């Protein structure tokens, strides 16, 4: 690998502090935060050794308490953002400020000759993204969207099932992210700061699904909820139809005191389910479609054979979900390799732009009540 | 109660045989069928005694084997449908033939002076329904849609939660009926006979939900599947927005080898879930919204407090689902009382017409890919 990159972090809130400790500790594990002081290294053997290619130059936050937290953890603190940008030993900036600040900070950084790794949602609008992409092109500096959840194991399981047709041709996929605590605190509840759950979790689950299914989206219908916050969406239900006929239901909720399965995947030869973040679940594959003999079950006032489960029958086979080891620092690594001209961006600017446009179509759909023939 | 009604049944297939044995045995339990010979009486004390108000005059089917089955079970068989209609001791006809035959048979029956109890979907189209309603008005004969699932216990549980605000104001309801055996056999897989799952299960779950939520539907988006049958819908996903802001997701699937929860109900003060037909489930009520202190959980590559479950916390309270005893013969009874001029139809013609129109809007939505501002 080429040059080891020195990175400065602007913003030391939830994500910024995670990055700071992840890089400072050398594990890359960003689940550190200002509220948690110890996080074990990643399990598995595939994770690349972060200190080989990335080191922390320092951080800065407008909140003095957060800078103090950094100092107490042995992390250098810059005097301000300008000082970080002016430091010639800083190769790159990681932006972890509220969403509405990303654009100006990214442009300043690239104009100061720094590469940029930018927290998601990278921009509040696709128009802003186009401006930032223009500056990236003009300056020759990398602008890298930190949309990191295509390396989540739950997604990798679903992607394997989809790609390898483990349950035949998939026709419907559901992914649901459900909590019961409303929108996370402070600026995420404020519209002008880029708050709301679509920009928070929506970006991730849309990002991944449109990467998994390469076809265009032909139709999109979205409904937002405003149960716990009248200003910012605290959840949504999104229906996507792809050009290959596959439909996807994405849902985020923050007023949900019971949990539906995290993922459901339906194919013409079976189904798979991931129940929760622990990745409990199963894959059920059909052996014989014609073996329909079963005792009907009582379903309310009626008897149903159609809806009777196949439990205990010999017409289906049940499997454990496939599991993975993988490089959990893959995004950091690809960022560094991209900056060094050694690799293509795995999370491309064009991809992030498409995700922003899909999210804009979601808002349009929810506000108008109409389905959007998005890329048809 | 007034006059005891004598009823003839036309069609001795899955539902016709159930009705025949339910009435013949006096239990009213229609889960009998030509494949099952003994069904216990309903549990509970609330169920009215069917023999007090309804008796079976006889049955008829164009399939001789089914008439033979009836005779073997001590049930009278008419020579044909005309003979049934011509019998002056027959007060009412129960129509349990394939869906495309309902209209002509219902009109013939009413013109012959018989009341009609008609299996669902009562008609294939709202236009047919208007014709039948006109004949009902003209002849003064009852035409009663046998949309019987508003007396299902799972629905009664959800209705109680909704009506009594047991989890605060409900904002979203999901009901999913999932099987793995495709569309049930014979005519239900043929479009011109009124096949497909929307007309089979859709009618029930739409029927109930629009009865529970009295407001108009302002928006409707529906997507059908044709996985196991290219001609008839073998499932669908339906989004409804009501004028009070409540959204409902109804789903039927017949290529689903894992089961999502049967019902999920989300309110601003809690959630409820019915997992399956055994009515396993729970109701979770929020005690303190502000008590958000919790340890974050690991969710893929990131840490989330927002999506961390409240398990074991003291900020929520968990309850068993409310259960009910009720008159499981309520529809038969109301039909008889209506024929005797003693009651209003609980399942009115106008209601069935509305359900048919909603289903037509579903087909329009799925075919065009558009949302329908249905009754807005």
What would you note in describing this structure?
Two copies of one chain form a homodimer. Chain A is α/β, with parallel strands linked by helices. The first copy, chain A, has two domains: 5-149 and 328-344, 3-Layer(aba) Sandwich (Rossmann fold); 152-326 and 359-368, Dihydrodipicolinate Reductase, domain 2 (2-Layer Sandwich), CATH 3.30.360. Helix content of chain A is 29%, strand content 23%. The first copy, chain A, contains nine helices and 15 strands. Chain A has helices at residues 14-25, 64-72, 81-86, 102-111, 126-139, 153-163, 197-212, 330-339, 349-368, and strands at residues 5-10, 54-60, 92-95, 115-119, 143-146, 170-178, 217-225, 235-242, 247-253, 263-267, 270-274, 281-286, 297-299, 302-304, 316-319. In chain A, strands 7-8-9-6-10-11-12-15 form an eight-stranded mixed beta sheet. A five-stranded parallel beta sheet of chain A has the order 2-1-3-4-5, with helices on both faces. The first copy, chain A, has a two-stranded antiparallel sheet with strand order 13-14. In chain A, 54% of the residues are buried. The mean pLDDT of chain A is 93.
